[in-house]
# Entry
Amino acid sequence: DGGITQSPKYLFRKEGQNVTLSCEQNLNHDAMYWYRQDPGQGLRLIYYSQIVNDFQKGDIAEGYSVSREKKESFPLTVTSAQKNPTAFYLCASHRDRNTGELFFGEGSRLTVL
Amino acid sequence: GENVEQHPSTLSVQEGDSAVIKCTYSDSASNYFPWYKQELGKRPQLIIDIRSNVGEKKDQRIAVTLNKTAKHFSLHITETQPEDSAVYFCAASGSGGSNYKLTFGKGTLLTVNP
# Structure
């Protein structure tokens, strides 16, 4: 069953701690994305990667970092520098630039205590 | 960069009525405009999309129209049903028309009352 798997689904973190959200896909898609969703704010792009070992900042990259060592994996680290990290995080992928559809994971909800 | 405005933020209709959601975009180079539906507690899913070389596209009860001159596009849902209740997001491709970078609107919460 192909798809995108995000983990953990829920995560609690203390202020000052870094946390890494996992995103794995078995769709053989080239491009992967991380979006942040806040109530009333839509989906805002954090980082995206078009190919292994390459990634670009999105609109709200400050306080986040990513890596793309494997085609299947695109983990997101929320660092202590992110001032308002409590949010719902969505990972997505799509095959290539001629296929516009994004496939989303089920999301990870991060709460900073 | 691209900026997408979406209206209304909430929309309530009676079952069987039509619903229209409108979006405007700023980057005239954008050429791809998808609509996503997100049911409560679920992931967003693509319901329809349109490219800049067409003005309208239909899929059963759903249609999208695009006016490139005015830089706006709209989602039309006819004969609404309670299962249409969800948050709907419009989006536009990023600067230069790259499909790799979508900018989303803030969403419309559609409620269909039985």
Notes: Chain A is about 0% helix and 50% strand.
